[in-house]
Amino acid sequence: MAMAGLYRRVLPSPPAIDFASHEGKKLFIEAIQSGTMEGFYRLISFFQTQSEPAYCGLASLSMVLNALAIDPGRKWKGPWRWFDESMLDCCEPLEKVKAIGISFGKLVCLAHCAGAKVEAFRTNQSTLEDFRKHVMRCSVSDNCHVISSYDRSALKQTGSGHFSPIGGYHVGRDMALVLDVARFKYPPHWVPLSLLWEAMGYVDKSTGQQRGFMLISRPHREPGLLYTLSCKNESWVGIAKYLMDDVPVLLKSADVKDIEKVLSLIVTSLPSNFGEFIKWIAEVRRREDGDQRLSPEEKARVTVKEEVLKQVQETGLFKHVSAFLSSANSCCRNLPLLSHQDNFPDIAASVCCQGAEILAGISSASGEYCCRETCINCLKANGDNLVTVVSGTVVNGKSEHGVDVLFPSSQMKPGCCCSASSNYIGIHPASNDVLTALLLALPPETWSGIKNENVLLEISSLVLTENLPTLLQEEVLHLRRQLHLLKRCQENKVDVDLGAPMS
User: Fold this and answer.
1) pLDDT tens figures, 106-118
2) Catalytic site includes residue 231
3) Which architecture, in CATH terms, is 17-217?
4) What is the pTM of this model?
Protein backbone atom coordinates (compact mmCIF):
# COMPACT_ATOMS: atom_id res chain seq x y z
CA MET A 1 0.00 0.00 0.00
CA ALA A 2 1.27 3.48 -0.85
CA MET A 3 2.09 5.76 2.08
CA ALA A 4 1.00 9.38 1.75
CA GLY A 5 3.14 12.15 3.16
CA LEU A 6 5.08 15.29 2.36
CA TYR A 7 8.80 15.42 1.71
CA ARG A 8 9.93 19.05 1.90
CA ARG A 9 8.62 21.91 -0.21
CA VAL A 10 10.09 23.78 -3.13
CA LEU A 11 11.18 27.18 -1.82
CA PRO A 12 9.30 29.92 -3.73
CA SER A 13 12.09 31.91 -5.39
CA PRO A 14 11.61 34.75 -5.91
CA PRO A 15 11.03 36.27 -3.44
CA ALA A 16 13.36 34.06 -1.37
CA ILE A 17 16.86 32.92 -2.29
CA ASP A 18 18.01 29.50 -1.07
CA PHE A 19 20.98 29.89 1.28
CA ALA A 20 22.78 26.95 -0.38
CA SER A 21 22.22 28.18 -3.95
CA HIS A 22 24.95 29.89 -5.97
CA GLU A 23 23.34 33.29 -5.43
CA GLY A 24 22.73 32.51 -1.76
CA LYS A 25 26.40 31.65 -1.24
CA LYS A 26 27.43 34.86 -3.01
CA LEU A 27 25.19 36.91 -0.70
CA PHE A 28 26.66 35.08 2.30
CA ILE A 29 30.28 35.83 1.32
CA GLU A 30 29.49 39.49 0.63
CA ALA A 31 27.69 39.84 3.97
CA ILE A 32 30.65 38.27 5.79
CA GLN A 33 32.99 40.74 4.11
CA SER A 34 30.79 43.65 5.20
CA GLY A 35 30.76 42.39 8.81
CA THR A 36 27.00 41.74 9.06
CA MET A 37 27.16 37.99 9.73
CA GLU A 38 28.74 38.04 13.21
CA GLY A 39 25.60 36.68 14.87
CA PHE A 40 25.42 33.82 12.37
CA TYR A 41 28.27 31.74 13.77
CA ARG A 42 26.78 31.13 17.20
CA LEU A 43 23.30 30.59 15.82
CA ILE A 44 24.50 28.04 13.27
CA SER A 45 26.41 26.24 16.05
CA PHE A 46 23.09 25.66 17.83
CA PHE A 47 20.76 25.51 14.82
CA GLN A 48 17.97 23.00 15.39
CA THR A 49 14.92 21.71 13.62
CA GLN A 50 11.63 22.04 15.45
CA SER A 51 10.62 18.65 16.86
CA GLU A 52 6.88 19.19 16.36
CA PRO A 53 5.03 20.90 13.47
CA ALA A 54 3.78 23.63 15.82
CA TYR A 55 7.01 24.09 17.82
CA CYS A 56 8.57 26.77 15.60
CA GLY A 57 8.47 29.34 18.41
CA LEU A 58 9.95 26.99 21.00
CA ALA A 59 12.69 25.79 18.64
CA SER A 60 13.62 29.36 17.69
CA LEU A 61 13.82 30.44 21.33
CA SER A 62 15.78 27.43 22.60
CA MET A 63 18.25 27.86 19.74
CA VAL A 64 18.81 31.53 20.58
CA LEU A 65 19.07 30.89 24.35
CA ASN A 66 21.72 28.23 23.76
CA ALA A 67 23.57 30.48 21.31
CA LEU A 68 23.71 33.16 24.03
CA ALA A 69 25.05 30.57 26.54
CA ILE A 70 22.28 31.30 29.05
CA ASP A 71 22.25 28.63 31.76
CA PRO A 72 18.70 27.25 32.19
CA GLY A 73 19.47 26.32 35.81
CA ARG A 74 17.83 22.92 35.43
CA LYS A 75 18.77 19.73 33.68
CA TRP A 76 17.77 18.66 30.20
CA LYS A 77 18.85 14.99 30.23
CA GLY A 78 21.35 13.18 32.39
CA PRO A 79 23.44 15.83 34.18
CA TRP A 80 23.28 18.36 31.33
CA ARG A 81 21.73 21.79 31.68
CA TRP A 82 20.64 22.75 28.18
CA PHE A 83 17.63 24.53 26.70
CA ASP A 84 15.27 22.23 24.85
CA GLU A 85 11.76 22.83 23.54
CA SER A 86 10.38 20.53 26.24
CA MET A 87 11.67 22.89 28.96
CA LEU A 88 9.89 26.01 27.66
CA ASP A 89 6.58 25.50 29.41
CA CYS A 90 6.14 28.27 31.96
CA CYS A 91 3.70 30.43 29.97
CA GLU A 92 1.73 27.85 28.00
CA PRO A 93 1.23 24.08 28.45
CA LEU A 94 3.31 22.12 25.95
CA GLU A 95 0.32 20.03 24.87
CA LYS A 96 -1.50 23.21 23.89
CA VAL A 97 1.53 24.52 21.98
CA LYS A 98 1.83 21.14 20.26
CA ALA A 99 -1.78 21.42 19.12
CA ILE A 100 -2.07 25.07 18.06
CA GLY A 101 1.34 26.71 18.38
CA ILE A 102 2.20 29.71 20.53
CA SER A 103 1.39 33.40 20.25
CA PHE A 104 3.97 36.16 19.90
CA GLY A 105 3.27 37.52 23.40
CA LYS A 106 3.59 34.13 25.07
CA LEU A 107 6.92 33.47 23.35
CA VAL A 108 8.13 36.83 24.68
CA CYS A 109 6.94 35.72 28.13
CA LEU A 110 8.90 32.45 27.75
CA ALA A 111 12.05 34.38 26.87
CA HIS A 112 11.66 36.49 30.01
CA CYS A 113 11.02 33.36 32.10
CA ALA A 114 14.18 31.78 30.73
CA GLY A 115 16.20 34.69 32.09
CA ALA A 116 17.00 36.49 28.85
CA LYS A 117 16.91 40.23 28.30
CA VAL A 118 14.08 40.84 25.82
CA GLU A 119 12.88 43.78 23.74
CA ALA A 120 9.74 43.00 21.75
CA PHE A 121 7.90 45.05 19.12
CA ARG A 122 4.79 44.51 17.07
CA THR A 123 4.88 46.15 13.64
CA ASN A 124 2.35 48.78 14.78
CA GLN A 125 4.80 49.70 17.57
CA SER A 126 7.82 50.14 15.31
CA THR A 127 8.85 51.08 11.77
CA LEU A 128 10.67 49.38 8.93
CA GLU A 129 13.65 51.67 9.51
CA ASP A 130 13.79 50.76 13.22
CA PHE A 131 13.52 47.06 12.34
CA ARG A 132 16.42 47.46 9.90
CA LYS A 133 18.53 49.14 12.60
CA HIS A 134 17.82 46.34 15.09
CA VAL A 135 18.66 43.64 12.52
CA MET A 136 21.88 45.45 11.67
CA ARG A 137 22.82 45.81 15.36
CA CYS A 138 22.42 42.10 16.03
CA SER A 139 24.09 41.13 12.75
CA VAL A 140 27.36 42.88 13.63
CA SER A 141 27.48 41.28 17.09
CA ASP A 142 27.02 37.85 18.65
CA ASN A 143 25.57 39.32 21.85
CA CYS A 144 21.99 39.61 20.62
CA HIS A 145 19.73 37.79 18.18
CA VAL A 146 16.45 38.59 16.43
CA ILE A 147 13.47 36.23 16.29
CA SER A 148 10.87 37.19 13.70
CA SER A 149 7.17 36.28 13.91
CA TYR A 150 5.76 36.43 10.38
CA ASP A 151 3.10 35.02 8.06
CA ARG A 152 4.51 32.65 5.47
CA SER A 153 1.88 33.56 2.88
CA ALA A 154 3.49 36.98 2.34
CA LEU A 155 6.62 35.13 1.18
CA LYS A 156 4.52 32.88 -1.12
CA GLN A 157 5.23 29.94 1.18
CA THR A 158 2.64 27.44 2.36
CA GLY A 159 1.30 27.81 5.87
CA SER A 160 0.55 30.89 7.94
CA GLY A 161 2.12 32.05 11.20
CA HIS A 162 5.75 31.08 11.81
CA PHE A 163 8.78 31.95 13.97
CA SER A 164 12.44 31.83 12.96
CA PRO A 165 15.67 33.55 13.99
CA ILE A 166 17.39 36.00 11.65
CA GLY A 167 20.92 34.80 10.99
CA GLY A 168 22.43 37.79 9.17
CA TYR A 169 21.91 40.78 6.91
CA HIS A 170 23.12 41.86 3.47
CA VAL A 171 23.37 45.64 3.41
CA GLY A 172 23.65 46.14 -0.37
CA ARG A 173 20.63 44.02 -1.23
CA ASP A 174 18.74 44.86 2.00
CA MET A 175 18.06 41.15 2.61
CA ALA A 176 17.81 39.14 5.81
CA LEU A 177 18.88 35.52 6.25
CA VAL A 178 16.00 33.55 7.77
CA LEU A 179 17.24 30.43 9.57
CA ASP A 180 13.98 28.55 9.13
CA VAL A 181 13.62 26.07 12.03
CA ALA A 182 11.18 24.00 9.92
CA ARG A 183 14.11 22.55 7.97
CA PHE A 184 11.98 19.57 7.01
CA LYS A 185 9.91 22.04 4.96
CA TYR A 186 12.12 24.89 3.73
CA PRO A 187 15.89 25.46 3.91
CA PRO A 188 17.44 28.66 5.31
CA HIS A 189 16.84 31.48 2.85
CA TRP A 190 17.46 35.13 2.11
CA VAL A 191 14.39 37.40 1.84
CA PRO A 192 14.01 41.14 1.20
CA LEU A 193 13.86 42.88 4.59
CA SER A 194 10.90 45.02 3.49
CA LEU A 195 8.96 41.89 2.52
CA LEU A 196 9.74 40.25 5.88
CA TRP A 197 8.49 43.43 7.55
CA GLU A 198 5.27 43.18 5.53
CA ALA A 199 4.91 39.51 6.56
CA MET A 200 5.27 40.51 10.23
CA GLY A 201 2.42 43.00 9.80
CA TYR A 202 -0.16 40.26 9.23
CA VAL A 203 -2.67 39.85 12.05
CA ASP A 204 -2.58 36.71 14.18
CA LYS A 205 -6.21 35.59 14.17
CA SER A 206 -5.84 33.86 17.56
CA THR A 207 -5.01 37.14 19.34
CA GLY A 208 -6.24 39.85 16.95
CA GLN A 209 -2.75 41.40 17.21
CA GLN A 210 -0.12 42.06 14.57
CA ARG A 211 3.00 39.94 14.60
CA GLY A 212 6.46 41.40 15.14
CA PHE A 213 10.01 40.75 16.24
CA MET A 214 11.98 40.39 19.45
CA LEU A 215 15.60 41.13 20.33
CA ILE A 216 17.07 38.63 22.77
CA SER A 217 20.35 39.14 24.61
CA ARG A 218 22.14 37.93 27.72
CA PRO A 219 21.20 39.40 31.10
CA HIS A 220 23.88 41.18 33.13
CA ARG A 221 24.25 38.01 35.18
CA GLU A 222 22.69 34.56 35.30
CA PRO A 223 19.22 34.70 36.87
CA GLY A 224 18.22 32.67 39.87
CA LEU A 225 21.60 31.98 41.44
CA LEU A 226 20.07 30.46 44.55
CA TYR A 227 16.27 30.73 44.32
CA THR A 228 13.76 30.27 41.54
CA LEU A 229 9.99 30.08 41.17
CA SER A 230 8.62 26.88 39.69
CA CYS A 231 5.59 26.71 37.44
CA LYS A 232 5.93 23.04 36.53
CA ASN A 233 2.90 22.30 38.67
CA GLU A 234 -0.40 23.90 37.64
CA SER A 235 -0.92 25.02 41.24
CA TRP A 236 1.32 28.02 40.51
CA VAL A 237 -1.73 29.90 39.17
CA GLY A 238 -3.46 29.91 42.56
CA ILE A 239 -0.24 30.62 44.46
CA ALA A 240 0.68 33.56 42.22
CA LYS A 241 -2.82 34.97 42.68
CA TYR A 242 -2.52 34.57 46.47
CA LEU A 243 0.82 36.37 46.66
CA MET A 244 0.02 39.16 44.21
CA ASP A 245 -3.70 39.74 44.83
CA ASP A 246 -4.84 38.20 48.11
CA VAL A 247 -1.96 39.15 50.42
CA PRO A 248 -2.40 42.94 49.90
CA VAL A 249 -6.14 42.56 50.60
CA LEU A 250 -5.47 40.51 53.75
CA LEU A 251 -3.03 43.10 55.07
CA LYS A 252 -5.44 45.93 54.32
CA SER A 253 -8.41 44.29 56.00
CA ALA A 254 -6.62 43.08 59.15
CA ASP A 255 -5.53 45.08 62.17
CA VAL A 256 -1.91 44.00 62.56
CA LYS A 257 -0.04 45.31 65.60
CA ASP A 258 3.50 44.03 64.90
CA ILE A 259 5.67 42.20 62.38
CA GLU A 260 4.86 38.80 63.88
CA LYS A 261 1.16 39.39 63.17
CA VAL A 262 2.00 40.37 59.59
CA LEU A 263 3.96 37.14 59.10
CA SER A 264 1.27 35.07 60.78
CA LEU A 265 -1.42 36.54 58.56
CA ILE A 266 0.51 35.74 55.38
CA VAL A 267 1.90 32.34 56.31
CA THR A 268 -1.17 30.77 57.89
CA SER A 269 -3.20 31.41 54.73
CA LEU A 270 -0.62 29.99 52.33
CA PRO A 271 -2.04 27.50 49.78
CA SER A 272 -1.42 23.89 50.81
CA ASN A 273 0.84 23.18 47.82
CA PHE A 274 3.01 26.24 48.37
CA GLY A 275 6.13 24.12 48.92
CA GLU A 276 6.31 23.32 45.20
CA PHE A 277 6.41 26.99 44.21
CA ILE A 278 9.76 28.35 45.35
CA LYS A 279 12.91 26.26 45.05
CA TRP A 280 16.56 26.65 45.94
CA ILE A 281 19.17 25.46 43.50
CA ALA A 282 21.99 23.05 44.38
CA GLU A 283 24.81 21.77 42.16
CA VAL A 284 24.92 17.99 41.60
CA ARG A 285 27.75 15.80 40.33
CA ARG A 286 28.88 12.16 40.35
CA ARG A 287 31.34 11.25 43.06
CA GLU A 288 34.51 10.23 41.26
CA ASP A 289 37.39 8.12 42.49
CA GLY A 290 40.77 9.73 42.96
CA ASP A 291 41.00 13.51 42.65
CA GLN A 292 38.14 15.08 44.61
CA ARG A 293 38.98 18.71 43.96
CA LEU A 294 36.34 21.07 42.65
CA SER A 295 36.78 22.78 39.32
CA PRO A 296 37.17 26.58 39.28
CA GLU A 297 33.67 26.83 37.76
CA GLU A 298 32.10 24.75 40.51
CA LYS A 299 33.97 26.69 43.15
CA ALA A 300 32.86 30.03 41.66
CA ARG A 301 29.19 29.04 41.46
CA VAL A 302 28.95 27.70 45.00
CA THR A 303 30.85 30.69 46.37
CA VAL A 304 28.30 33.08 44.88
CA LYS A 305 25.40 30.97 46.18
CA GLU A 306 26.94 31.03 49.65
CA GLU A 307 27.25 34.80 49.51
CA VAL A 308 23.59 35.17 48.51
CA LEU A 309 22.54 32.90 51.39
CA LYS A 310 24.74 34.83 53.80
CA GLN A 311 23.22 38.13 52.69
CA VAL A 312 19.69 36.76 53.17
CA GLN A 313 20.53 35.63 56.69
CA GLU A 314 21.96 39.04 57.56
CA THR A 315 18.73 40.92 56.77
CA GLY A 316 16.51 42.22 59.52
CA LEU A 317 13.54 40.44 57.96
CA PHE A 318 15.32 37.08 58.27
CA LYS A 319 15.61 37.55 62.04
CA HIS A 320 11.87 38.19 62.31
CA VAL A 321 11.01 35.21 60.09
CA SER A 322 13.33 32.88 62.03
CA ALA A 323 11.85 33.98 65.36
CA PHE A 324 8.34 33.52 64.04
CA LEU A 325 8.99 30.03 62.65
CA SER A 326 10.64 28.86 65.84
CA SER A 327 7.83 30.23 67.99
CA ALA A 328 5.94 27.57 69.95
CA ASN A 329 2.56 28.99 68.91
CA SER A 330 3.43 29.25 65.20
CA CYS A 331 0.80 27.35 63.27
CA CYS A 332 2.89 27.39 60.10
CA ARG A 333 4.45 24.09 61.20
CA ASN A 334 1.46 22.41 59.58
CA LEU A 335 2.19 23.87 56.15
CA PRO A 336 3.97 21.84 53.46
CA LEU A 337 6.72 24.37 52.75
CA LEU A 338 7.64 24.57 56.39
CA SER A 339 6.74 21.09 57.51
CA HIS A 340 10.21 19.72 56.89
CA GLN A 341 12.04 20.16 60.15
CA ASP A 342 14.96 21.71 58.29
CA ASN A 343 16.98 18.73 59.45
CA PHE A 344 20.17 18.77 57.44
CA PRO A 345 20.71 14.98 57.23
CA ASP A 346 17.16 14.47 55.97
CA ILE A 347 17.42 17.25 53.42
CA ALA A 348 20.88 16.06 52.32
CA ALA A 349 19.58 12.53 51.80
CA SER A 350 16.61 13.81 49.81
CA VAL A 351 18.73 16.01 47.56
CA CYS A 352 21.29 13.24 47.01
CA CYS A 353 18.46 11.00 45.79
CA GLN A 354 17.26 13.78 43.50
CA GLY A 355 20.84 14.18 42.26
CA ALA A 356 21.15 10.48 41.47
CA GLU A 357 17.88 10.61 39.55
CA ILE A 358 19.02 13.68 37.61
CA LEU A 359 22.31 12.04 36.69
CA ALA A 360 20.44 8.94 35.52
CA GLY A 361 17.86 11.00 33.61
CA ILE A 362 14.97 9.61 35.71
CA SER A 363 11.96 11.57 36.90
CA SER A 364 12.19 12.58 40.55
CA ALA A 365 8.72 11.14 41.05
CA SER A 366 9.94 7.63 40.39
CA GLY A 367 10.85 6.88 44.01
CA GLU A 368 13.41 4.28 42.93
CA TYR A 369 16.32 5.74 44.88
CA CYS A 370 17.06 5.55 48.59
CA CYS A 371 19.96 7.36 50.25
CA ARG A 372 21.71 4.96 52.63
CA GLU A 373 24.06 7.49 54.17
CA THR A 374 25.31 11.03 53.82
CA CYS A 375 28.51 12.69 54.92
CA ILE A 376 29.68 16.28 54.91
CA ASN A 377 33.02 16.66 53.17
CA CYS A 378 35.25 19.64 52.56
CA LEU A 379 36.94 19.69 49.17
CA LYS A 380 39.51 22.08 47.72
CA ALA A 381 39.35 23.95 44.46
CA ASN A 382 42.89 24.39 43.17
CA GLY A 383 44.32 25.17 46.61
CA ASP A 384 41.66 27.73 47.48
CA ASN A 385 39.49 27.73 50.56
CA LEU A 386 37.48 24.67 51.49
CA VAL A 387 34.05 24.14 49.95
CA THR A 388 31.30 22.15 51.67
CA VAL A 389 30.06 19.12 49.75
CA VAL A 390 27.44 16.64 50.90
CA SER A 391 28.30 13.16 49.65
CA GLY A 392 25.65 10.48 49.58
CA THR A 393 25.61 6.78 48.89
CA VAL A 394 22.39 6.19 46.99
CA VAL A 395 20.93 2.71 46.53
CA ASN A 396 18.84 1.67 43.55
CA GLY A 397 17.97 -2.01 43.86
CA LYS A 398 21.28 -3.83 44.14
CA SER A 399 23.40 -1.02 42.69
CA GLU A 400 25.01 1.87 44.56
CA HIS A 401 25.78 5.33 43.29
CA GLY A 402 28.02 7.99 44.76
CA VAL A 403 26.58 11.50 44.50
CA ASP A 404 28.02 14.87 45.52
CA VAL A 405 25.74 17.85 46.13
CA LEU A 406 27.36 21.26 46.48
CA PHE A 407 25.32 22.86 49.24
CA PRO A 408 25.56 26.60 49.69
CA SER A 409 26.23 27.28 53.38
CA SER A 410 27.09 30.42 55.27
CA GLN A 411 27.85 28.95 58.70
CA MET A 412 29.82 25.79 57.96
CA LYS A 413 33.02 25.28 59.93
CA PRO A 414 35.98 23.59 58.21
CA GLY A 415 36.25 19.86 58.69
CA CYS A 416 34.38 16.70 57.87
CA CYS A 417 31.44 15.29 59.73
CA CYS A 418 28.97 12.49 59.12
CA SER A 419 25.32 13.39 58.79
CA ALA A 420 24.33 12.15 62.22
CA SER A 421 25.56 15.36 63.77
CA SER A 422 22.95 17.95 64.63
CA ASN A 423 25.49 20.78 64.50
CA TYR A 424 24.73 21.46 60.86
CA ILE A 425 21.07 22.35 61.16
CA GLY A 426 20.53 25.70 59.47
CA ILE A 427 23.69 25.77 57.36
CA HIS A 428 21.77 25.24 54.12
CA PRO A 429 18.89 27.08 52.44
CA ALA A 430 15.94 26.31 54.72
CA SER A 431 12.39 27.45 55.42
CA ASN A 432 13.40 30.66 57.15
CA ASP A 433 15.64 32.01 54.37
CA VAL A 434 13.41 30.71 51.54
CA LEU A 435 10.41 32.50 53.04
CA THR A 436 12.52 35.61 53.67
CA ALA A 437 13.62 35.72 50.03
CA LEU A 438 10.06 35.40 48.80
CA LEU A 439 8.72 38.11 51.13
CA LEU A 440 11.49 40.43 49.96
CA ALA A 441 10.41 39.73 46.37
CA LEU A 442 6.80 40.78 46.86
CA PRO A 443 5.98 44.08 45.10
CA PRO A 444 6.50 47.14 47.35
CA GLU A 445 2.81 48.05 47.11
CA THR A 446 1.94 44.77 48.86
CA TRP A 447 2.45 46.43 52.25
CA SER A 448 0.86 49.82 51.56
CA GLY A 449 -2.56 48.87 53.00
CA ILE A 450 -1.27 48.19 56.53
CA LYS A 451 -3.22 50.54 58.79
CA ASN A 452 -0.81 50.74 61.71
CA GLU A 453 1.72 53.40 60.68
CA ASN A 454 4.50 52.10 62.91
CA VAL A 455 4.16 48.57 61.52
CA LEU A 456 3.99 49.94 57.97
CA LEU A 457 7.17 51.94 58.48
CA GLU A 458 8.97 48.98 60.02
CA ILE A 459 8.00 46.43 57.37
CA SER A 460 8.70 48.93 54.58
CA SER A 461 12.21 49.40 55.96
CA LEU A 462 12.75 45.64 56.28
CA VAL A 463 11.76 44.88 52.66
CA LEU A 464 13.26 47.97 50.98
CA THR A 465 15.19 46.62 47.99
CA GLU A 466 17.59 49.56 47.92
CA ASN A 467 18.85 48.60 51.39
CA LEU A 468 19.99 45.16 50.22
CA PRO A 469 23.53 44.23 49.14
CA THR A 470 23.98 44.07 45.37
CA LEU A 471 23.92 40.27 44.97
CA LEU A 472 20.82 39.82 47.09
CA GLN A 473 19.15 42.81 45.46
CA GLU A 474 19.59 41.20 42.03
CA GLU A 475 18.30 37.87 43.34
CA VAL A 476 15.21 39.53 44.83
CA LEU A 477 14.51 41.55 41.68
CA HIS A 478 14.79 38.36 39.62
CA LEU A 479 12.14 36.67 41.80
CA ARG A 480 9.96 39.78 41.63
CA ARG A 481 10.13 39.80 37.83
CA GLN A 482 9.13 36.14 37.84
CA LEU A 483 6.13 36.96 40.03
CA HIS A 484 5.03 39.75 37.70
CA LEU A 485 5.36 37.43 34.69
CA LEU A 486 3.31 34.72 36.35
CA LYS A 487 0.62 37.24 37.25
CA ARG A 488 0.60 38.46 33.65
CA CYS A 489 0.18 34.84 32.49
CA GLN A 490 -2.50 34.16 35.08
CA GLU A 491 -4.47 37.18 33.82
CA ASN A 492 -3.85 36.17 30.19
CA LYS A 493 -2.29 39.56 29.39
CA VAL A 494 1.00 38.43 27.84
CA ASP A 495 -0.19 39.27 24.31
CA VAL A 496 -1.22 42.76 25.39
CA ASP A 497 1.83 43.71 27.46
CA LEU A 498 5.16 42.80 25.80
CA GLY A 499 7.35 44.87 28.09
CA ALA A 500 9.86 43.54 30.57
CA PRO A 501 8.21 42.81 33.94
CA MET A 502 8.49 45.56 36.52
CA SER A 503 11.02 45.15 39.32
Assistant:
1) 999 889 888 888 9
2) no
3) Alpha-Beta Complex (3.90)
4) 0.71
